[in-house]
Amino acid sequence: EQEVENLSGLSPNPEKDIFVVRENRTTCLMAEFAAKFIVPYDVWASNYVDLITEQADIPLSRGAEMKGKCGTNESELEISWLEQAYTLRLFFLKEGHNTSRGQEAFWRLGRIQFTYDTAERTYFKDAVSPGKHTASSHRLSALVTPAGKSYECQAQQTISLISSDHQKSVQLLLSEVRVQPFDITADFVFSEEHKCPVDQREQLEETLPLILGLILGLVIVITLCVYHIHHKLTANQVQIPRDRSQYKHMG
Hints:
Belongs to the LAMP family. By secondary structure, the chain is α+β, with helices and mostly antiparallel strands.
């Protein structure tokens, strides 16, 4: 028995959506992210002869309908909103590859498909030849994560899709992503996260000044201690005159 739940209302961020797929009362796919599509489309110029390109910014609306499918090596998440004028489908794959440590398994986002209707008036204004189009990814390998872990990335990522509307380039902007389509061990709980390279770099950039400051402070303390010890030792030594004329005053 399969259940799907849109838990976006639990997110403190109104732009972030939360989706859960459960089978046999156990979570098998979880996804949290904020998503927006930038879609170019044609409108008539003021002379009604030439075409100009406008741009629609389409956010993934809260309260979207969803479907999901879990498998051993393939999982899928489908999200539709505004009476199915927009549908996003994410296809996940789990694979194995050979490394120096032997066979290792990982999962990735292998394909994205976005269907949109330029006749929908909320985001498309006066589109020429309005109708449905499909934008798809090409040779996609995104969100690559070791098997058994969840993918996490707070930074914004841009994925390009090619549309059936005269091969226009549709941009998918993803941010605040946490996804796990396989091997969830606890109901409604993500496994250990695998951070994206951008987040890892930003984390290093945040901690590096602190580490350098601590090292610099330690160097200063050591230098002061060495100077203090050296000064104390030299102060206690007997000073022998270097000028031989002073020897007559000694003894």
